[in-house]
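Annex B. Sample input.
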Amino acid sequence: MKTFYTLVLAGLTCLILSVLSAFAQSGGDGPPSRWFEVDQLNPGLPPAETDLLRETPQSSLETFLTLAREKRYADAAHLLDLTDIEIDDQERIGFERAAQLFAVLDRKIWIDWDSLPDRPDALDPRGSSRDASAGEAQRDISLGQLSLEYRPVSIRLRRIKEGAGDPVWIFSRQTVGNIEGLYDAYGPSRFEKWLPQPLAQNTPLGVAVWELIALPIAIIVLVAVFLIVYRGLRSFQSRTDHSVAAELLEAIALPAASMLTGIVGWLLTRYLFVFSAPVDVFMTPLWTAFLVLALIFLFVRVFDTVLDRVFARNIDDISKPENEGDRELQTNLSAARRIALLVVAVAGFGIVLLQTNVFDGMAVALLGSAGLLTLVVGFAARSALSSIMSSLQIALSKSAKIGDDVLFEGYWCTVERINFTFIQLRSWDRRRIIVPVDYFVSHPFENWTKQDATITKYVELRLNHLADLKPMRERFQQFVEDDEDILTKNESKVQVVDHDATGMLVRFYADARDPTTGWNMQCRLREAMLMAAAELEPKRGDEALYLPAEREAKIVDLTKDMSEQRTSSESD
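Annex B, continued. Sample output.
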């Protein structure tokens, strides 16, 4: 036991000594992992003409922007890590890279000063406890991301310690290596270089004079492009005799014009009017979202046009029993349309998020409050999501297929369309009944063509108690034999199902191959049985043997009789 305590004490002693040694090596200012160490930092640069504040990320960025706005790029080069550049070229190339980096930052990076740390250790005291780096010193910070040759490139500040000097925050050498490419992609265009100096001056709004002039011009150009493309497609469509081409042109006119307008706008803002960050921070996500939405719109319109050509033009034809396969196909295509639209919408939303890198800080904040955001979005979109899931439920379960005959809340209808939020039903008198899809799913309905379209129809007649049913059965059997719409003639029958004081209730049953045919057959059967009862009724006064006899009440004008009696008594 004594040996055990001795070993534990020796281990603790070694641990304490190692910690104290590390602390001593760091100069008492923290462990070496809080910065990157280099032997020499930019030895090829001449001494700066002014004091450089580089102790914190915020002060370092402020210093760089201040020097760059004053065009003191030689001093601003001290805020760059030029380690990968030859010592003899650091002064010249550092001057160029500082000017190029300032142009990129001014044009494409929206700096969130509130979230930029102003502490040497870059620790954010306001960080969420769910953040993995909360409460820890940072030695590398991203100011934003830009796309360069189809890959994301970060602009980063890094904390570097030179020998025994104090650590400073400067732009990382990886960022310096990408400055030239970023400048070629996002720097001043030929149009801007051609502009006179007064137009390049900044206004109190934070944008250049030429931007205030170019923005309305760009809007006018884009509106003109949209109108020309849209009217051109519609004009070409009106001259096209081919029905398929005409329908396709009519479907794509609006989304195609929108997409081409978005492409022209993106090209204008990318190569001609390269706006500064205050404008570009809204312009870039706007064009990205606009192009994605236009592409989704174009896909939906083309897909719908193709489906309309595949779908039967006459819903009465697809409702026939022999077209069960067509109803199945159209319902599957309808479900595929909704699934494809959901996939495209989600993919488009993801593209917008991936391409829009200017809101990185905001995205992190939203992710930090993801629980609250999920509740808010879920509450706002609960109705739409419920309708979408209900429509997919109907389409996938086939409880009601396109072309099915259904009885819904007293309406005999045919299912015409199953959309995201509503179902379109066509009643027998050709009215369109629009039912919210979640309401349709949550209420019972009769599907007359779910498994078998065959339907039994009957006609009810109230006959006299003394009526002889044998002649009526003979007339019924004759009708059954002569009518081609009756499916199973040997199963047709006549039954007395009820009686009361007025007579007996007789039903005539017959089967039809589908509800529409059954309805027409039922009307003919009713007419035939009424004519048969009338023909069999004997023509002997008030005697009735088939149709029920009803008592008649004779109303006497008592007022006239009383007046005559009063006149007679007065004369006496």
